[in-house]
């Protein structure tokens, strides 16, 4: 699986003078059932979060507040997605290496996951990831 499977997904945006509202529904707006959600916050401005890939897990990442970059690599090519609005996000399928970086002050990243937490699903070394993909496993 390569970067061609990565998608920016626009979410419904209901505009109102009292404030806007957006929604995410599993298997409707994102292509998987949500089994876990977590958020990343209080990252110092300009900082990054180290990378990893998942063997099975798919994710949808959205900037609820502020901005940050989602840096994706399929072992051959790298692409950067700048997220800075809460009404769209990036779908990251399994077997794509991902890093988050360039956080603005007070940014909040919401991550929706297709799987429950499983430390055995993580590949946390980029060379191991490339070998995993090269060996035809991924």
The first-level CATH class name: Mainly Beta
State mean pLDDT (0 to 100 scale): 95
- What does the largest sheet look like? 5 strands, antiparallel
Order of helices and strands: EEEEEEEEEEEEH
- Strand residue content: 35-45%
* Helix amount: under 10%
Question: Could you tell me the radius of gyration in angstroms?
Answer: 15 Å
- CATH superfamily, by name, is Jelly Rolls
And the CATH topology? Jelly Rolls
Number of distinct beta strands: 12
Total helical segments: 1
What structural class results from the helix and strand content? mainly beta
Note the gap between the termini: 7 Å
The backbone outline, from C-alpha atoms, is: globular
Strand order of the largest sheet: 1-9-6-11-4
Low-confidence runs of at least 5 consecutive residues: none
CATH architecture: Sandwich
How many domains? The number is: 1
Per-chain topology:
Layout: E1 7-10, E2 13-14, E3 21-22, E4 36-40, E5 49-54, E6 59-65, E7 68-73, E8 78-83, E9 88-92, E10 97-101, E11 108-113, E12 122-123, H1 126-134
Antiparallel strand pairs: 1-9, 2-3, 4-11, 5-10, 5-12, 6-9, 6-11, 7-8, 7-10
């Amino acid at each position: 699986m390569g970067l061609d499977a990565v998608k920016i997904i626009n979410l419904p945006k209901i505009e109102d003078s009292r404030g806007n509202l957006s929604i995410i529904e599993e298997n409707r707006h994102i292509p998987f059932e949500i089994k876990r959600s977590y958020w990343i916050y209080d990252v110092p401005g300009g900082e990054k979060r180290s990378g990893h890939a998942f063997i099975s897990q798919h994710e949808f990442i959205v900037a609820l507040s502020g901005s940050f970059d989602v840096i994706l690599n399929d072992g051959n090519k790298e692409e950067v997605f700048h997220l800075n609005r809460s009404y769209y996000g990036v779908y990251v399928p399994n077997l794509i290496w991902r890093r988050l970086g360039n956080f603005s002050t007070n940014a909040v990243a919401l991550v929706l996951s297709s799987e429950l937490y499983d430390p055995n699903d993580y590949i946390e070394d980029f060379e191991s990831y490339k070998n995993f993909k090269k060996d035809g496993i991924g």
